[in-house]
Amino acid sequence: MRHFLLLFAIAAVARAFYPWPHHPMDTAHHIGNAWGNYQNYGSPYLHNGQDIMTGPLVPCMAIKPGYVKAIWLGGSPMYNGVTVGDSAGAGFCSAFMYYHIDNSTIRVQVGDTVQVGDTLGLIATWSVAEFHHNHFSMNRNSGVIWSSYGQFYRNPLLEMRPNDDSITPNFLDAYTGQRFAICRNNASSYQSKDSVYGTVDLICRLEDRINHRLWKVAIYRIDYTIRDTLGSIVVPLTRAVEMSDTIDAYTRTQSRVVYKQDATCNTQCNYDSLNRRYYYIFTNTDGDSLIEATDSLAGWNTTGVPDGAYWVKVIARDEFGNTAIDSMMVKVRNLPTNRHDVGVLKIVAPTVAVESGAVVVPACTVYNYGNFSESYTVRLRIGTLYDTTATVTGHAAGTKLGIEFPAWAANCPLGFYPVVCSTQLAGDMTPVNDARRDSVEVQLGTGVEWSGQPGIRGPKLDVWPSPADGRVWLALGVDAAVPVVVRDVAGRVVMAAEAVPVGGRLLILDTRRLASGVYYLEAGAGRGKGSAKFVKR
Description:
globular; Dup_hybrid_motif; seven-stranded antiparallel sheet; 3% helix
């Protein structure tokens, strides 16, 4: 037994850690995107590497002896890489993948043996300013030569030393006036912290930075617990999120388990460092470190506890042990005598677009979330053009109703108009779900010639994020600065500026001086002009 303990102690001390793949190799480097970062360039997914920030054409070195299993060539200087595995054979083995190496600088070939510190190539010059980086990952696959990346199976930052980052994660309010957001399980119907009922998702907003003053990255681990006001445990300390294990390559399933992404909790992470936001659904878990689709079925079932006050406590930490703790009191109210709550489920019409002069019957769907039959009014507004109410009588608990309003004729200037529909119930206990917001575009009718008003049709123009807090990104398919005109819903020009290129055929426009509302954006000139709408918070 004594020999066994001695051998175990020696093995624990001898665990191998690896240096960093850039000079100086014995110093921790900046991280621009972490393992598990939310990404969405058309479809959401989890980032399957650590983006180690460098300068352009900086040497990329092997951090472990091994065999070159693959050279990845993507057809441009940016999308190339080298995989160095633990074995030269055909069986399964682990490997480190070094990616975004300039293809003209790669210095190894498949089958080569490399040692620690050997230069594999030079990091490519990235299209976004100051985001030159090595997408660094741990992979697992089989074959003498790998035909695919294989499985992205472990966060490489856990295997590297030194790990002396000292920046502590930071909590922010996830909902107005609330540290954490609360919504019905797998839905976007939000509840007040003072009236929580049914099975709910609990959401926190967190940000972290790894050795960098600017780039906010995903948190490594979140745990949570729930107690009553006497200290009795309702939910024991539970691992909610851990960014350590396998990430599925470029699929949306895992991202939807971890991150909340809707109009209220709008997770986003792109190359705009000022506009990164992470909202974590920390009740989507079965307690292990794997991120699985079935985790999204979990939630806090408040019907299993008595009505009353409870403390929700969340602990967040990064790979280096820096820890932040926050908490919020919630009040569970499940008893029938406690809940009066109705809200708008959906605006049915008008939405998207209508032709100028068309007659539309505005409509919506409302739902009684409470436990009483309710009578109330519903109000629908279309810009400043239309404002009317409908009366609902005897709406049964737990049911939905379709509501129609008097007809509206779109005899108004072309452009975008906000559409707002809201319930008005005296004593409503959850006002956060009362209203829904959308917009409608009044367009030219078929065969009508455009004469300069909003509503034009040009090349495809994508604008994101929407809703936006500050800067917006434009994809118009050009790499040069373009003039931009922003109009309000009445067609008035409220901003004339220039969108500047940031690489990758993307443009950026600063909209921070605009007031909250719906806007119409025209970018470019002549036949190259595109149009789109966006919402400013």
